[in-house]
Specification:
This protein is an all-beta fold. It contains no helices and 17 strands.
């Protein structure tokens, strides 16, 4: 999933007289990448602690809405909201986060949405990164990969290995330790490190090339589908 921003737009709330709660509808432009599998929505409401401490958890996190480009916050109340939208692909990789914020005011019996003077809290997403002892070699090739993810303090690590013969989205090998060592078969394999913190996750990929005779290649990928 490429780091393509999705334009988020907040629609006006439903007018329901002088009631204290209402529905707030969010809509955004569709992501046009071929491997799009859906969207995740997170948001902070007026009572969220993230307005004062941005790197804590969202009020509501990672709601999967499929291919829908709208989401409705039901039972909303007057106050400030931060909305965070990410697209994800068939491998589960996420796009960059699009943040949008505004405040709802009650003027008489009419609710009004305004973005003036309101900024969304930092999304505080972790940034995945790792290095490997080798990315090319002759069979059998044992590779040790070392986590270097430090930005925004990730505290959970998920390694996934996909062999060349794997035509599914299910990894051939998984590890949940901070670092990983694995022996790769002949062919082109992919390693994905997914790191999490309280807000959400980020992915980083590398390719491993193993041959049974001379002639080797090298390469790595940063952030996205098998990432660009």
């Amino acid at each position: 999933m490429k780091h393509t921003l999705i334009a988020a737009v907040i629609m006006y709330s439903l007018y329901i007289g002088a009631a204290l709660a209402f529905d707030l509808k969010i809509t955004w432009d569709a992501n046009t990448e071929e491997d799009l599998a859906g969207y995740n929505v997170s948001y902070d409401g007026p009572a969220s602690g993230r307005w004062a401490t941005p790197c804590s958890a969202y009020t509501v996190s990672s709601l999967g809405v499929g291919y829908n480009t709208t989401y409705t916050i039901e039972g909303a109340t007057v106050g400030t909201y931060g909305i965070y939208i990410r697209a994800y692909d068939t491998m589960g990789n996420m796009s960059d986060c699009t943040a949008y914020a505004g405040s709802v005011y009650l003027d008489g019996e009419t609710y009004t949405w305004s973005t003036e003077g309101v900024d969304a809290p930092d999304d505080c997403l972790p940034v995945a990164l790792f290095v490997c002892s080798s990315t090319t070699g002759l069979n059998p090739l044992t590779v040790t990969c070392t986590n270097q993810s430090t930005e925004n303090s990730p505290d959970t690590w998920e390694w996934a290995v996909f062999y060349e013969t794997n035509e599914t989205t299910t990894p051939d090998h998984t590890v949940t330790t901070k670092n990983m060592s694995h022996t790769f078969p002949v062919g082109t394999s992919a390693i994905r490190l997914r790191v999490w913190n309280d807000t959400w996750f980020d992915d980083y990929w590398k390719y491993i090339y193993v041959t049974s005779f001379g002639g080797i290649r090298s390469g790595s990928i940063r952030n996205g589908g098998l990432r660009p």
